[in-house]
Amino acid sequence: MRRVLGIVLLLSALLAPPLRAQVSDDDAGGLLVRFLENTLSDDNRRIEVTGLEGAFSSRATIEKLTVSDAQGVWLTLSGAVLDWNRMDLVRGTFSVNALTADRIVIARKPLPADAVDLPSPEAQPFSLPELPVAVELGEIGVESLELGETVVGLAAALQVSGRLSLAGGALDTRLSVTRLDRPGDALDLTAQFSNTTRQIALDLTAIEDAGGLISTALNMPDRPPLLFTAKGTGPVDDFTADIALVSDDAERIGGAVRLRGLEAPEGADPATPQGIRFSADLAGDVTPLLPPDYRAFFGAETRLALDGINRPDGRTEIERLDLTSDALILNGSLAVAAGGALETALLHGRIAPPSGETVLLPLSGPQTRIGAARLTLRMDGAADSTGAGDWDLTLSADRLSRPDLSLQRAELTASGALDQSAGLALDGTLKAGLRGLGFADAALARAIGSEVTLDGGFALTGAGGLEFRGFQLRGADYTATLNGMLDGLQSGFEMDGRLRLAAADLGRFSGLAGRDLGGAVTADLSGTGTPLAGSFDIALALRAQDLSAGIDQLDPLIAGTSTLSLDAARGADGLTIRRFVLDGTALSAQAQGTLKSAGSALSFRAALDDLARLTPTVSGPLTLTGDLDQAGRAWTGKVRLQGPDKSYADLNGTFDPEGRADLTFDALLDRIQRFIPELPGQLTASGTAKRDIQGIWTLETDATGPAGVSARIAGSLDEAAGTADLTARGDLRLEAANPFLKPNSIAGRAEFDLRLDGPPALRSLSGRISTSGTRMAIPAAAQTIENISGSVTLADSAASLALTGALGAGGGFRVSGPVALTPPYDGKIAVDLQNLILTDNKSITSSANGRLSLSGPLAAGPLLSGRIEFGETEINLSAVSGSAAAAPIPSIVHLHDSAAVRATRARAGLIDTGGSGGGGGPAIGLDLALVAQNRVFARGFGLQAELGGALYLRGTTAAVEPVGQIELIRGTLDIIGRRLKLTRGVVTMQGDLTPYVEFASTATTEDGKATIEIAGPMDGPVVSVYAEPERPAEEALAMLVFGSRVADLSPVVIAKMAASLATLGRSGGASDKVRKATGVDRVDFGTDASGAGQVGAGTYLSDNVYTDFTVNTRGETELNLNLDLSKSLTAKGSVNNAGDTGIGLFFERDY
């Protein structure tokens, strides 16, 4: 009201004729709008006025007015009209014909204000305010007042009408509020009082049906219908107001408030006022209006009784105050002198459960139960002749519990002196204790403990200051002690004192910190400070012992004894750090300087005694130094990080508060092998970094490193968008990867040209990595890959491969296709084989052509499919096994071998490193065809065989399912000068992809069958001879070769047999040399059926035409020609020197 009236009076002054002659209505309206908005707005409230017209007329209108806070508009007023009599102000009356509004919308409750003005502690006698002018409001009206649901818990539309007159010490007001959205709910108020007649008239009625505004706002159970009345008429010295609250047609609270004049003492002037006695007596059963849980506290009757006197001289006495319920008894008395000074105060209170161990307190928030509580407060404002008094307070509580807290016993006692000579001043001591303290939060329970005490002296001055003397909070192994002075609001709560903290075991705070803490700390803080001004002048001394934070990298740095001292001040001239020193076993730091809006300067130094505390691969000190200076608003500085050996990092440049920066940097990391032993050398980087006011960084960096690494990085980074536009170009020697590829090795150079365009994610990366002429050696496969050339192109979170290369033995390959770089890493990689020479340089040599495809999710089981066609293939069985000379080397134990010897053996694969087990990757699906239709030659042990066929690999790499075999086309076995025709020959694949060979020749005699067999894994076949029926091997061999028993053979023949058996363990000897020299596919030396010596040779004329010829010592020759019509059908023709010819068709099928 005072604010509105002040605005109106100011506007009245603006109505003077000289001003109206100079200011137009539009200008005046704008001036008033600005005045209203600026005057009524504050830090928590913003007023906006739209469409103000008639600012200096008798009828002023506002189209719209809004009130908003930090969350937006909460009140909107539309169509406001002020119709008033301007000339009545001259007669001292603020007369309004009508103050109305079409619509007021209160969307929600406003945010609470940051600060609240405290009321004066002095009591004042009641009377109506004497305003500088009389106030008459002829009509007050709001057509629609709309309340949002969050205001009282229920949306509602109201209509307000009434009038107000406050003039000459008299009040006459009428107010009517009705609900538009629910007829019948209404509030009607009529109130009158006159200082002259001393008559009071009050008639207040509020009625609403079930679910109304009042029951909803008070959260009454079942939202009952309500009726509240307060009515009374009479003079001030004989006035009674009857009060009743009814719900569901039953009275819940009833009683009266009475005012009675005191009788004049005997002999006193009856016309002299003697004061007013006031009393109130209200009682009833309020439990139906409360939640059921609170009903035990109040019971069937709750009563408030009050008796007091208001003396003519302003002295007020409350002789009796009684508030009772089933669980509560509160009574007391109070006497306040005319000037507001406290004379006496006495208050007793008790809470006890009506039944059971505890009772629920009627408090908001989590349910709070208590077993018992007692309160006694006594204050005597004038206990002696000096005007000084005393006071004491006792408070106790038992068995207090909440869902998050429990307390067995709480006690508080306080007493001291009371002085009102210059305002209210208290001086005393306080002692409090909590026992059996428990928390639902285990971390909080461990931190605070089960018992806490608080004691000390204090003084509350009349000016609002608070002094603490030896105030100490003590827990199980921690204390906080405070001595100092806290001034009142006028000084901004200025503090001057000393605080000492001590914690013997920081481990109790581990749960709150979320990590394992340890150690002991003491801290001493002294000085002055003003929280509201943000100023301070302090000295801090801290000492810690054996600190730990549960961080492996940090704990070694803070172990032992650490001390910290700080001497600093903050005021109008900025922040001054006079001294900052940290001194620890491993860490030390110093800083000093001044920070302010302009002209700041700061220098600092920090050091770590030995980097070995952080990493075992590096030792030596690490030091960080810096100097920063401010010229205007811009900062200039240099920072240096000095490490062991020659390592360093320098940063120089400027930056300002707006965010602009211009920096240069230069860094060198020496002896990288300390971190990566396989990469010796230095890493260097230098360049510039600039930042503009929009937060965009521009970077240019050149870097070099071991293995010929050279790179240039340039582009920009956008902080706000979180995006980048960077390019990286350079090259490196691939030999840098050799330490990680052992025993394999690579030689060559790779170039890269990459770009990051967008957020720092794989999808933003594009570019190309290429190489040319690279060579790779794979000792385990006895292979070298030559001339590796091609590129990997990156785009859209995928890599596209295009690589070619050749094997050292001959032939080439090409790898191409895309691979996704995000899970599950889908790929479609094609591998083309072009006359690839495959050899282990020992037992097998072949050539391969074909195409393979690896497709599907590479991380979740891709499919390897394709077809490989093998050309002429040589299998030398005698190169890997058979003779005594080729027997496996027994296990060798190496004694005292040197590191160099071990490295050599490891590179040769002769040391089991435990890493050869099955990998943890996904099983790869297989769909492969390995085709060799003919020209697969197997030799050794006297064997000469040609095979053909196909193998198919199905299943997965974890469970291979081989199908098919390489079958015998033709072949012989030479033994003891005789040639046996092979009757069986196959090459198959076992489940672990090991080739398995099986060759056999069987002869039938009158004594049975005899077979010689070469069978087993290709890297270790076994020769065996057996017969049916069973007989010794030498008997079986004699039957096979000579058709006779050993006993029937001559000594010469037996010697020949022994000599020939030895050839089973050797290679082909002379026949191999002749075959290789002539280029034919087969060469034989032996005897014919008559014992004459002979030589034979054979070769392929085309893929399915084979020819051989034989010449013996008698001059006889024979030429054979084989034409393979199909896998099972062969046409054969022959001619000899005698002119004999022959032709035939042969059908063969293996079962």
Helix-strand layout with pairing:
Layout: H1 2-14, H2 17-22, H3 25-40, E1 46-53, E2 59-69, E3 72-85, E4 93-106, E5 134-147, H4 149-152, E6 156-167, E7 170-179, E8 186-194, E9 199-208, H5 213-217, E10 226-235, E11 238-247, E12 250-261, E13 276-284, H6 295-298, E14 302-310, E15 316-324, E16 328-336, E17 342-351, E18 359-360, E19 369-370, E20 372-380, E21 388-402, E22 405-419, E23 425-435, E24 438-439, H7 442-448, E25 452-460, E26 466-474, E27 478-486, E28 495-503, H8 510-513, E29 518-530, E30 535-548, H9 555-558, E31 561-571, E32 574-583, E33 587-595, E34 601-608, E35 622-631, E36 634-642, E37 648-655, E38 661-669, E39 683-691, E40 696-705, E41 709-718, E42 723-733, H10 738-741, E43 745-747, E44 749-758, E45 765-778, E46 783-795, E47 798-807, E48 812-820, E49 826-839, E50 844-857, E51 863-870, E52 873-876, H11 899-907, E53 925-940, E54 943-956, E55 959-975, E56 978-981, E57 984-989, E58 995-1005, E59 1008-1017, E60 1022-1028, H12 1033-1042, H13 1051-1062, H14 1070-1078, E61 1082-1087, E62 1093-1102, E63 1105-1112, E64 1117-1124, E65 1129-1136, E66 1141-1147
Parallel strand pairs: 4-5, 51-53, 52-53
Antiparallel strand pairs: 1-2, 2-3, 3-4, 5-6, 6-7, 7-8, 8-9, 9-10, 10-11, 11-12, 12-13, 13-14, 14-15, 15-16, 16-17, 17-20, 18-19, 20-21, 21-22, 22-23, 22-24, 23-25, 25-26, 26-27, 27-28, 28-29, 29-30, 30-31, 31-32, 32-33, 33-34, 34-35, 35-36, 36-37, 37-38, 38-39, 39-40, 40-41, 41-42, 42-44, ...
